[in-house]
Target: NERD domain-containing protein
Amino acid sequence: MEDIQALHETCNVLPMFNHIYTLVSQKIDEIITLTALTREALISLLLAQHNASYLWVIGQFRASFQGRTDFDFTETFGHRTTSRDPGVGDINTGGGLATLVDTLQIALNFVKDKSAFNLNASNPTDIAAIHYTDQLVKEANLLFGFKSTYEAVIWNGGYVRKRGENDFLATFPDRAKLILEEIGRFRLQMDSLAMNVKLQQILAKQGETNLGFDPAVRKHVCIKSIQLTEGAVTYELQDGVDAKELDDTFSFFAALETFYPYLNNVSLPTFAPLKMSDIILMFQLTTSLFSKVADNTDYAEKVTDLKTMFSHPYKIAKDVLGRYLLERSTYNQATIDTFLTMITKLQEEYYNFWNKPLAELGEDLLVSLLPITAANHFHFLDRWLEQGGFNLEKRGRMLESHVKSTLRELLTTKNFEHHIPETQRFRIAGEKEEIDLIINLKSVIIIAEVKCIKYPMEIRDYYNNYERLKRGAAQVARKADFFSRNSDGFKSITGPVGGKKLIRLVVTNYPIFAGCLIDDIPVIDFHWLEGYCKHNYQIEYSASGLKGQLTSQIEQAKILYGSEDEFNANFETQMRSPIIIEQLKSSVSIKETRMTFSDFPIRLYYENASFD
Model:
């Protein structure tokens, strides 16, 4: 009954969202005219202003950790920044930075779509241009707040409750799922960081890694200095190696090695003979240039003139960036052009800096600093693999093969009893079925569906991924029933099965939904499954900052099993309630984030899970 009431209330409220969206869209169109700037000038001003805001937030973030030599990694993940609007209060720093980009994209796409610019006869005053651009961003932020809340309610099964006069809360009944998703996002970063440390140790010990890239493609030169001229970036090189740059490169490779190790040395069909390692190396060289820009540019407060605003970095000439990549690598011009096409928005395309962090404007490339200097490695990996010819289905088949070969190797090394059939197609007693993964252990049998998902950048991505996993759970249930009905027929394929407990699983690549139960079938990421089979303990890490570099140290290890019998006995528990997730649950809580500014007549709040 309560759900029906909440649904009824939501249906009454959502038309208000549409009305506000229409009014704000009209206001944005009016503000664009009031700036009295050309389309190109307004686009440039929006980028310069956006990057200035980014530099301000990053400055706050760094200042909060200044002088500290060690900290828990959850502190960086859950870090909060004071909003410039007192009515909004503290906001998650990472989420706030992402909102800066989302808001910018909305504003830019409105400017792109405006049919005509009615410029004033006289030049606009600097104060007026900056003021109206501020207002444009503010309205775009408001639009983003209502748009993202609406999408979350629709795609995540939420409700909008009215709590008082003009006071609304978007709430989600399945709070446990929100918490698991936040823990999953955190584990993505931690798993990748752990792999980064491992790769660094291998490199220090052996002088090379097995990542499949040729270090010689990076020339023995690094950035000596950067210059800014009216927001345009240029550079000067010198002989030598930049240690931080190498560390950042390893960070990207660590993400690939953690979640797509079977694709780190494979040519991309669409861009053959280019491999993912080539794309990553060129991207990291580009990242290094703009990171130097961000690290060496001061944020100017209370800017009232366009000259100062345009002194913030926001563009680079196409030929300058192309020459930079030629001078820093052994790649030829055609290869570099292919790479730049992958990360550059053409003028006729809509702005999406998460997909393409550079945007073409005449002979220049506009840049949003955040998506390129603090790149979401997982999203870029999925996007480039898709562009390169490895769609989700193809990646899924490769993941299945990787899971089988890896588990066979690990269980053989431990000398644990096991049988993992190579085949996936079975015909027994006139019935046929395809089962992704069967693991016959000493006292349990695992029937699993292997599902590859992509990193969820948009709210709808979470829905699509979860629906994919739900289909996997339904398939596992059906296939487990098939196995049970025909267990005698499987003896010749898997070995003895009588009396063994049947465990059903959905195995996926990313840990975003790990710990979820779908129709009582656990979802687990392969990284945890692999770790359980490889080690009999769970390591707890702490993170520390040393000379600007983030590293991790082992704090303690908790034993998961001491024998093969305990490995079998504890298997289901560690798949249904992994200790790594249980340890983190107490650090995450549901918070309310205000989605409207304090001077807006409607107060809209949004429930989300965040580290404390």
User: Anything to note?
Assistant: The longest strand covers residues 549-559. Residues 68-77, 545-550 have pLDDT under 50 and may be disordered.
